[in-house]
Specification:
The structure holds two protein chains of two kinds.
Chain A: H1 5-17, H2 23-47, H3 59-80, H4 92-112, H5 126-146, H6 155-177, H7 183-208
Helix pairs in contact in A: 2-5, 3-4, 3-6, 4-6, 4-7, 5-6, 5-7, 6-7
Chain B: E1 3-6, E2 15-18, H1 23-40, H2 46-66, H3 69-85, H4 96-113, H5 122-125, H6 136-155, H7 158-168, H8 174-181, H9 185-203, H10 205-209
Antiparallel strand pairs in B: 1-2
Classes of the chains: A mainly alpha, B mainly alpha.
Chain lengths: 214, 210
């Protein structure tokens, strides 16, 4: 079974008419976009008060908590976003594992520090939630735009995993800013954003990540 | 790469194992991956090579799924254009075939969601119709078997049917089929095995019961 000979010319001329980025151009674009996102996140962090806001907690603790949050974010990225030598897509189970593990790991890691120092004040966690949703939301949108129409398998779950990863990275800024680690606060301010952004990622993933007929 | 079913005649002992990859298949895959890699780095001429190596397989896949030659060609074009637009994400050494089939399958799903349903018409297959003329009794038997298989396959869940077809008809390996379906190799094995059992039960109910 062979397609008609005319199809080849149609495909090649359609490709010629539609310029596409090369791999080097794609990498450069990703670097520029993520660098801009990082700079914006840092500016937002400073605007919210920066490290001054968590001055009530020993700095070494703040740094350690942020380091742990970084490890969680890096692992979530590695297991859900890294394509390795497979570009078709990762199994849904692996992606779901990241979506479930990221909030659990964040809760366990953050609340493990509770009681090891005197928490300077009490807050529900709405400001942490807002900060995380803002920074993580922007990161999620950036990632979705970079990966637009390139996930033919499980786009909803991929979107959810992207949301979890974006929230996990934004949590680094949040824990550098927030000196609280008690469980109720961690649930609202640090875990809830991961769940919310996973949900948003799932919704947007369905529309943005899957290839569609042109 | 072919997939064969081995077993001692009972469901419990049957399992899906992959036939060893022939050098020709390995070479074809390496050539395709290399062509796509060159295309990703900006070698525009390599896309013609990608087309030559991929289009016939995609066309066969789409023709079987849509039963419409025009739509199958349209889907081949759409799939290759998606690959063209996403060439910047191609990773050196990655398998192109599962990627292409995964895109193709997504476009099919997208199309079905948009509401197109095709029925097989004699004119649709055109030049792809079987040209050799078998004996009448062979033809009747073959038609009956094909009809039974089509009925059983149509009654199966999409994921199960597609896993079986990717392995049996499109010649994908278990790993490749797993990538296309976004699942694990074990899940593909299980789906294909269930399909095989359903087909066996339908085509030879007596043996299946024993």
């Amino acid at each position: 079974m062979m397609p008609s000979p005319a199809l080849k010319e149609r495909v090649l001329s359609a490709a010629r008419a539609q310029p596409a980025r090369t791999r080097a151009q794609g990498r450069l674009r990703a670097i520029v976009v993520y660098a801009a996102a990082l700079a914006t996140a840092f500016a937002a962090f400073e605007a919210w008060g920066g490290l001054e806001h968590s001055a009530g907690r020993p700095f070494a603790y703040t740094l350690s908590i942020a380091l742990g949050a970084g490890v969680i974010a890096a692992l979530a990225t590695r297991f859900s976003m890294w394509r390795g030598n497979s570009i078709a897509g990762l199994p849904a189970r692996a992606l779901l594992a990241v979506v479930l593990a990221a909030p659990i790991a964040t809760l366990v890691w953050t609340s493990a520090w509770h009681g090891s120092y005197f928490e300077p004040f009490t807050r529900v966690g709405y400001r942490c939630l807002a900060q995380s949703l803002t920074t993580g939301g922007a990161l999620l949108l950036v990632t979705l735009s970079l990966r637009k129409r390139t996930h033919p398998t499980n786009p909803v779950v991929v979107g959810a995993a992207m949301g979890a990863v974006a929230a996990a990275w934004s949590d680094i800024f949040v824990v550098l800013w927030c000196p609280l680690t008690n469980v109720p606060h961690a649930m609202v301010g640090h875990v809830l954003p991961i769940l919310v952004l996973s949900g948003i990622g799932a919704l947007l993933g369905r529309w943005f990540l899957a290839p569609v007929a042109r | 790469v072919g997939v064969v079913s081995v077993g001692a005649g009972c469901a419990e002992q049957s399992d899906w194992v992959e036939a060893a990859e022939t050098p020709a298949v390995r070479d074809a895959r390496a050539t395709l991956n290399s062509a796509m890699d060159r295309y990703a780095t900006g070698d525009e001429a390599a896309f013609s090579e990608v087309y030559d190596l991929l289009a016939p397989r995609l066309y066969a896949f789409f023709l079987r799924q849509t039963k419409n030659a025009t739509r199958a060609e349209d889907l081949v074009q759409q799939t290759l254009l998606q690959m063209h637009c996403a060439r910047d994400i191609y990773v050196t050494g990655a398998d192109v075939v599962p990627w292409a089939f995964a895109i193709g399958r997504r476009l099919l799903i997208d199309g079905y969601r948009r509401g197109w349903r095709e029925v097989l018409g004699a004119e649709d297959l055109g030049q792809d119709r079987i040209s050799s003329e078998p004996r009448p009794d062979e033809m009747v038997e073959a038609k009956q078997v094909a009809a039974s298989m089509a009925r059983v396959l149509a009654s199966l869940p999409d994921a199960q049917r597609t896993a079986f077809e990717l392995l049996k008809h499109d010649g994908l390996s278990l790993k490749e089929a797993a990538e296309v379906l976004g699942t694990t190799v074990n899940a593909v094995k299980l789906r294909a095995h269930r399909t095989y059992e359903a087909l066996r039960a339908a085509l030879d109910p007596g043996e299946h019961k024993s």
